[in-house]
């Protein structure tokens, strides 16, 4: 399966994720939903945030021009919120899943989708 299929079917295709991307841990966008453009500095931050989760807690999370308040950050998962919208950034063995959701999707619904895809990818070596 291509990386784009994971974004289109397993994330955005669920109807719970509004925009998503998969980044390589070494940099670069492997796949992204249509119109979801992460600036180079945003990509750099998102690929390094798990090594220094305190940076997200102190500065928030920026993606596609939006800034989210960090509500949780550790060496695997970083969650952010902005009003009734949010962002989930999860590290796998080789990639970084970035997914945004909007109202009426609840944070737990979106988190479950992204974390389960991350578990699957980790299980198959990615």
TrEMBL record:
Keyword annotations of the record: Actin-binding, Cytoplasm, Cytoskeleton
An annotated Gene Ontology molecular function: actin monomer binding
Coiled coil: none
Locations listed in the record: Cytoplasm, Cytoskeleton
GO CC annotations on file: cell cortex; cytoskeleton
One Pfam family cited in the UniProt record for this chain: Profilin
PANTHER family linked: PROFILIN
Function of the molecule: Binds to actin and affects the structure of the cytoskeleton. At high concentrations, profilin prevents the polymerization of actin, whereas it enhances it at low concentrations.
Subunit architecture: Occurs in many kinds of cells as a complex with monomeric actin in a 1:1 ratio.
Protein family according to the UniProt entry: Belongs to the profilin family.
UniProt-recorded name of the protein: Profilin
Organism per entry: Rhodotorula taiwanensis
């Amino acid at each position: 399966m291509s990386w784009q299929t994971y974004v289109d079917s397993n994330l955005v295709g669920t109807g719970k994720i509004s925009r998503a991307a998969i980044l390589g841990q070494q940099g670069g966008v492997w796949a992204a939903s249509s119109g979801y453009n992460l600036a180079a500095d945003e990509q750099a931050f998102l690929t390094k945030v798990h090594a220094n989760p305190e940076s997200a807690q102190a500065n928030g999370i920026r993606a596609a021009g939006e800034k989210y308040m960090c509500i949780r950050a550790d060496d695997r998962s970083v969650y952010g919120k902005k009003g009734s919208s949010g962002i989930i950034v999860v590290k796998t063995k080789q990639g970084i899943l970035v997914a945004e959701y909007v109202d009426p999707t609840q944070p737990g619904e979106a988190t479950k989708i992204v974390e389960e895809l991350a578990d699957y990818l980790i299980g198959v070596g990615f």
